[in-house]
Input
Amino acid sequence: MKYQSQKVAYWYFLAAMALFGIQVLGGLLAGWIYVSPNFLSEILPFNVIRMIHTNALIVWLLLGFFGAAYFLVPEESEREVWSPKLAYLQLIILVVGTLGAVGSYLVGIHGGREFLEQPLWVKFGILVAALIFLLNISMTVLAGKKTAITNVLLMGMWLLSLLWIFAFINPDNLSLDKMYWWFVVHLWVEATWELVMAAILAFLLLKLTGVDREVVEKWLYVIVATALFSGILGTGHHFYWIGLPGYWQWIGSIFSTFEVIPFFLMMSFAFVMVWKGRRNHPNKAALLWSLGSSTVAFFGAGVWGFLHTLHGVNFYSHGTQITAAHGHLAFYGAYVALNLAIFTYAMPMLRERAPYNQVLNMASFWLMTGGMAFMTFVLTFAGTIQTHMQRVVGDYYMEVQESLSIFYLMRFGAGAAVVIGALLFIYSLLVVRQTEVIAPGPANPVPGE
Amino acid sequence: MAEFLTKSRARNIFYGGSIFFVVIFVGMTVHSHKYVVEVSTAGMPLSDAVIRGKHVWEENSCINCHSLHGEGAYFAPELGNVMTRWGVQDYPEDAFETLKGWIESQPSGIEGRRQMPRYELTDEDIRGLAEFLRWADQTDTQGWPPNDAG
Ligand code: HEM
Ligand code: HEM
Ligand SMILES: [Fe+2]
Output
């Protein structure tokens, strides 16, 4: 930790990890209700649990992004955060808002637009927090050194905050409501968040591999260019069947196919940088998460996204378990794993010590990644059968679901592995053990003969 | 990457191209907005009952179990075409009666079957919901869903 004010990131990461725990436990509970539908049905219905699961996800990912920005911007701009006090105030607003939202859901107060169910006052709280953040980080960057990484990161954060305005716009016309809803949902995960992801990934690779900054930054601009060129018109892949004009079927299919490119580039970027880099960074776990994130993002967003993005396919698969499979692997690879990468990299520094518990941390990577991959596979099988029986043959929804119970049981098992992995991850960052579980080899091994 | 692609060129392409695509996207959005209002949803007036129904739909977060035009949760049936499935799309009074009967018979309590909670709604709320779902059903969704199963 070169700058004292980077310390604020520590508290952001702690809050994020707490919510991460709540998120996956909520998911596991929702997964259990799929297996045993009468469980809790009178006390805590499925829709409330699902809201907690998805909202906790979004808020903790944002907390992670904010924390990452407070961590990396001082290093990039070579100066302290403009106002650490404001950064803490921002965190308090977000935590109070989150607790308020969860409390409201439990007593039945919520909106009804998926992912944007927060009560109005919480939405305003998020807006205020975002404005504080933008002011704080922009002032830091303006006064210091400007790099491509801070440029892209800032642009991503400004644009995603701007898009939050659409969370307040809810037309009475359902089709218009849906169209503007996607301005938040799609243009977040498939445009502006990609900018944030690419910037954080570039920072991590710069530090972990020691490759020349010029090279890293050129890649960065190319990646984010392909992200926005494809992702903006790619929004059309959600406009096929909600009452919008038919031309979106072509625009959406073509441009969302190009959305695979930035994810492919991010994966290639990560591997090429590691290959070229000479630095033997001691934080192996952070490197594993960085490579893992870009790879799983390519499969979850790129491959599983493309799987159902052409309108001829989407006509049949729209709104089935295929969507759920893709949503899970994409979010996990692109944003969960990336956040866990920066936590893994930054936490030892924020606690001013050498990287620790790396073996446990890496074990948690494989548990979580294996669990999410398995969950994606079983949901894809379930979704394929569902698509055929319900959309092609025309069997009634509830009967089709009954024939899928074996897959939901396996999804629950996969979810249990993810929860154990998540708890192991949190433990490995919070509780510093004196020695690694497996003793490391010598730092500079003799080259093999 | 080739030498002609310097960092500053890459940056300029990024900025210029992004603005280009934003402009096209905004233009298409404006057109789509008009199309929704004038064409695809124009088959039935956006009455007070429909609007009330939409609010009831939202306050009870139905979307976190059901899907509507294929969006939402996947735990319970698609409702964008439920009025067609029930055969009451063209009969507002039947739509209301059927929906009221449905809501008041929940939860089914059947062991091993997914449960829909019991909602204490007034007749006006239920009428609104029925109108809202009829309104959604008449929207021109380019032929989706493929069949009445939703
Ligand atoms: C990290 C990036 C991405 C994330 C986090 C993500 C996440 C999601 C989520 C959560 C949904 C479900 C939304 C709902 O509730 O209705 C969804 C839907 C969809 N995504 Fe993605 N996605 C990503 C990237 C992509 C990409 C690159 C493509 C295309 C190549 C794609 C194609 C689709 C399609 C076609 C749907 C609609 C599915 C349906 O019709 O039901 N996604 N995505
Ligand atoms: C313990 C592991 C998990 C389990 C058992 C689980 C289970 C579930 C269930 C049952 C749903 C509701 C599906 C429906 O609407 O019918 C859901 C939705 C969702 N979960 Fe998870 N989840 C888990 C972990 C995660 C993780 C780690 C992420 C993020 C990477 C995530 C992101 C989401 C998203 C985005 C949705 C909404 C999907 C959509 O609308 O397409 N979940 N999850
Ligand atoms: Fe999308």
